[in-house]
Specification:
single chain, alpha+beta, eight-stranded mixed sheet
């Protein structure tokens, strides 16, 4: 009897463990009483079309009742375009064609393409959309929406949140990220007409009617994802950009060195999957630092009026074929990180504009990335259920770019306000309002939301020193990813606002006149150190980037979870005992501090115990910017893990370092 009883207990225990592994039943408490079940994630996903609807005479008459059709009979392709008279016979609106200014904003409201100035939209080649994922745990629900748009100013994302409070009060908060598509309607405002020196439109390209439609549609996507929630299992993984895809880089310090080689990058692809408890796919999300402007920057005139989802559209469709459910692309820290392209690219014979600027290449790229993500899905790691929340911080940054100041005065940014001491003052204020956010999805995943095109050097770190800085008088910003605590850390770019490029303040240098500074480039766009620049004119200014990371790291530092990493100034230790800012070839790290009479701590990733007369304090493994252990150091290495604690090395400042000598 005793043996049969032991066998029975073992069988019951094994059955309970099997059911737990499958997420089937709660654990059994001592004495046979069932403990309270751990709440699971609830996940929903939804896609909503945001393509401008086609022109419809009846709807148009209702939308513009005070604009007589016989007086304003110019051809229009889309709804939301104000009636006009085609006096120039162009077949589309061109200034100075007379138009009916129905909303009295002083400009023609129509659909301009965001890939170039004064490109009126001609057709929808393939639909553009807003894709949303809603995740709940307990009473809190966070929603993230990825919108096919170049960027969306904070004025409009505030309206999305306001609308959602009415539609679905159960949604705790929502992050709206534009995926930086440049073959979509102009939502930034600088691509209207007339064309000024082929750089900016004299009037805003924002269509107020379309923006109202877009706000409603983004909110609808979030609400639909919320309504579709069901018990689910979340899993995640990260992997390098696949070898059959190359991400092009803009030759721009501090992303590249003086040879044009990438040195401060974020080359990881993040994957998040959600499946029902029965294993049915709900959504597969890819996080990646990249532009999508294959079509928006095409030099083929026939494509320059196309509205298209570009390579992410092909990615979505292929991924949905590969794994089921909804596909979703979420742009990461894409500042100076340009379009991905297959290796090799499609041949020039594939079509006009190929390989750079054609649908054949967009399709090849999107499908290659989809296949790579699909191959990773089986190896994703299950995320532990836990608290879900969006924490955000709203603040003001100085508008330092004189070109942006002029654009604000000209009304190019639509309804966006400037501020003085936190009070909206129209277009003449010294500041703009912006925000950062952190999405906590249980203990294992954090999304780090920044309001622009952040350079990887800003978000994940770099190995430049103060002697390399374009403007060394400016401070060194904190690195947000180093302050995160989850195992998986996905950067989310262009989130809830559009500040343009976000560059570490000390790496910001531009032509005279763009901002008030002494850090200028020469006629070849090279700074005083000889570093190449070209994107600073598309940024609000150097101060904003540092402000963004300071507010974002402050949010991250308040998160519960595993212990925060320790961040110290220091250097990497090479095999001969010398010190370097670069981790390439390193065997350990030195961290400045008060230990050992003031020479700090010395750790190695090998078994060396002594450098010169200095004993090694411990042995561990190098880690990258996400605190993932590495077998060998490379350009992604930023610290070391020793005894369960992570140390990041801030190599930027000058430091007084000891002389270690060769290993013993």
């Amino acid at each position: 009897m005793a043996n049969r009883h032991a066998v029975r207990i073992r069988v019951v225990s094994l059955l309970a463990l099997a059911l737990l592994a499958a997420g089937g039943v709660p654990a059994l408490a001592v004495g046979g009483a069932a403990s309270a079940p751990t709440p699971r994630f609830l996940v929903g996903a939804a896609r909503v079309d945001v393509s401008p609807p086609p022109f419809d005479p009846k709807a148009d008459a209702a939308a513009f009742p005070l604009c007589p059709a016989q007086a304003f009979d110019g051809p229009r392709q889309f709804a939301f375009e104000e009636p006009y008279k085609d006096v120039q016979g162009a077949g589309h609106f061109e200034y100075p064609d007379p138009f009916c200014d129905a909303n009295r904003n002083g400009r023609w409201d129509g659909i301009y393409i965001s890939g170039g100035v004064d490109h009126v939209a001609e057709r929808v080649h393939d639909p553009i959309d807003a894709r949303a994922i809603a995740v709940s745990h307990g009473a809190r629900t966070a929603v993230v929406v990825s919108v096919v748009a170049q960027g969306i100013h904070e004025t409009y994302t505030h309206r999305v949140r306001d609308r959602l409070r009415t539609l679905r009060p159960g949604i705790t908060d929502v992050i709206v990220s534009a995926n930086h598509n440049e073959s979509s309607p102009d939502t930034v405002g600088i691509y209207g007409a007339p064309n000024l020196a082929d750089t900016v439109g004299v009037r805003s390209g924002i269509d107020d009617y379309y923006m109202s439609f877009l706000v409603d549609r983004v909110a609808d996507a979030a609400a639909a994802a919320y309504d579709a929630r069901q018990p689910a299992v979340l899993s995640a993984a990260q992997f390098p950009v696949p070898s059959n895809v190359e991400v092009h880089l803009s030759n721009n310090f501090p992303t590249t060195n003086d040879k044009g080689q990438g040195v401060a990058l974020d080359p990881k692809v993040g994957v998040l999957t959600a499946r029902t408890t029965a294993g049915t796919p709900i959504v597969t999300l890819m996080s990646m630092a990249a532009h999508n402007q294959e079509i928006g920057h095409s030099n083929v005139p026939a494509l320059q009026g196309d509205i298209s989802s570009d390579w992410p559209g092909f990615f979505h469709r292929r991924l949905e074929q590969d794994v089921g459910g909804m596909g979703m692309f979420l742009v990461a820290d894409n500042g100076s990180i340009e379009d991905p392209q297959t290796v090799p690219p499609v041949p020039a014979s594939a079509g006009p504009g190929c390989p750079s600027g054609c649908y054949a290449q967009a399709q090849a790229t999107g499908e290659a990335l989809a296949d790579a993500v699909a191959a990773q899905v089986p190896s994703t790691k299950r995320l532990r259920p836990g608290a879900v929340n969006i924490r955000r911080d709203e603040f003001y940054v100085p508008l330092e770019n004189n070109l942006f100041k002029a654009a604000a005065v000209a009304g190019l940014f639509g309804d966006r306000q400037t501020f003085a001491a936190g009070v909206p003052v129209g277009p003449l204020g010294p500041d703009v309002r912006t925000e950062v956010g952190v999405v906590d999805v249980g203990p294992d995943l954090q999304l780090l939301a920044n309001p622009g095109e952040a350079f990887p050097a800003l978000m994940v770190g770099n190995h430049w020193g103060v002697e390399d800085a374009s403007c060394p008088d400016r401070p060194n910003p904190p690195v947000p990813t180093w302050h995160a605590r989850a195992a998986y850390r996905f950067n989310v770019g262009l989130a809830d606002d559009m500040l343009g490029y976000l560059i570490p303040a000390w790496g910001f240098s531009t032509q005279p006149g763009v901002i008030t500074t002494t850090c200028f480039n020469d006629q070849n766009d090279k700074d005083q150190r000889g570093h190449q620049h070209k994107l600073e004119s598309e940024s609000v200014g150097p101060t904003a980037a540092n402000d963004v990371t300071e507010h974002l790291t402050a949010l991250l530092d308040t998160a519960p979870g595993r212990p925060a990493a320790e961040i110290r100034t220091g250097r990497f230790v090479l095999a001969d005992g010398s010190l370097s800012r670069s981790p390439v070839g390193a065997v350990g790290v030195w961290l400045s501090g008060l230990e050992h009479g003031g020479y700090g701590l010395l750790f190695t990733a090998d078994r060396t115990r002594l450098f010169g007369s200095h004993w090694v304090d411990g042995h561990g493994a190098f880690v990258d910017y996400d605190a993932v252990a590495q077998t060998a150091p490379d350009l992604l290495t930023h610290g070391i893990a020793v005894g369960g604690r992570t140390y990041y090395v801030d190599v930027y400042p000058d430091v007084s370092a000891p002389t270690f000598g060769p290993p013993a």
